[in-house]
Task: inverse folding
């Protein structure tokens, strides 16, 4: 079986335990399938990038024993590919320019129902039929198809989202000219031949959007598995924005064990990181086949 997995960190800061959990799950899933595992630096959002973070992250992954034979892909070097995907959508009349400000969208969203994480507001479709008089294009949005989008998550089971109602037409090119994460991730997963996406549950609400976009672009839709998020003492998701501590590189085995426990497994009794990966892969295969979430070939 051809398996290609990936870990796609944003170099806006070093990895914290939450991101190590996602990296660990994607790495172990690739090992369990005897597949390839890629690293992709999602460095498009230049205002949020931290100088040196990409190298630091690669160093962290290396000391945790997560290594790849494949070249690292940097999204900042792939702008022309996002442009050609966008042009294709344009030729399909699947995108349109939008002149709304964030404020306007937030105001109209108060009248609409949504099931998105805080901070995400459904777009009410103001510019769908054309820019209102005197408005300038700020961003570009996808014309989201109507209806419920269904998919199966290998960890969570059957999932569904009415993207048109819950999210609305979403942004592919931002007002600051930067390609949106949703477009770049879909273009790159297809370009890299990714068959299996394993990542944190914070991205679960993006999955339906990404699958719709992939389908419109004629790409194969990868399998998905979303692992639980690590919370801090206040019940908030560990994140770079919340200044979560970078993982301690002087104790790689302990870090891996903590990540493994956060995934809901027992702490493996092993002496080094190499043995950790052997044991973790064995347990992962067992868990997946027992839960009948996925058949390992
Ligand atoms: N770059 C995204 C992040 O760090 C992850 C993208 C993905 O796995 O799809 O949150």
Result:
């Amino acid at each position: 079986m051809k398996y290609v997995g990936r870990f796609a960190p944003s170099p806006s800061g070093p990895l914290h335990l939450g991101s190590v959990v996602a990296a660990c799950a994607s790495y172990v899933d690739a090992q369990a399938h005897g597949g390839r595992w890629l690293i992709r630096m999602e460095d498009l959002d230049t205002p949020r990038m931290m100088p040196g973070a990409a190298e630091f992250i690669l160093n962290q992954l290396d000391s945790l024993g997560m290594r790849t034979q494949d070249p690292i892909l940097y999204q900042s070097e792939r702008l022309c590919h996002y442009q050609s995907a966008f042009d294709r959508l344009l030729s399909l009349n699947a995108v349109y320019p939008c002149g709304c400000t964030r404020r306007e969208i937030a105001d109209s969203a108060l009248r609409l129902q949504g099931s998105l994480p805080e901070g995400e507001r459904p777009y009410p479709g103001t510019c769908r039929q054309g820019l209102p008089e005197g408005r300038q294009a700020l961003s570009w949005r996808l014309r989201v198809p109507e209806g419920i989008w269904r998919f199966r998550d290998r960890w969570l089971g059957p999932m569904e989202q009415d993207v048109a109602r819950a999210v609305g037409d979403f942004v592919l090119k931002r007002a600051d000219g930067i390609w949106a994460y949703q477009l770049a991730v879909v273009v790159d997963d297809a370009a890299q031949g990714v068959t299996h996406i394993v990542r944190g549950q914070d991205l679960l609400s993006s999955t339906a959007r990404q699958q719709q976009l992939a389908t419109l672009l004629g790409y194969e839709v990868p399998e998905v598995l979303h692992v639980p998020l690590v919370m801090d003492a206040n019940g908030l998701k560990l994140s770079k924005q919340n200044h979560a501590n970078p993982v301690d590189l002087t104790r790689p085995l302990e870090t891996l064990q903590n990540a493994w426990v956060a995934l809901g497994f027992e702490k493996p009794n092993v002496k080094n990181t190499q043995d950790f990966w052997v044991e973790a892969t064995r347990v992962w295969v067992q868990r997946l086949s027992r839960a009948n979430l996925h058949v390992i070939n």
Observations:
- The mean pLDDT is 91.
- The first strand starts at residue 4 and ends at 7.
- The domain at 4-77+230-291 is CATH 3.40.50.620 (Rossmann fold).
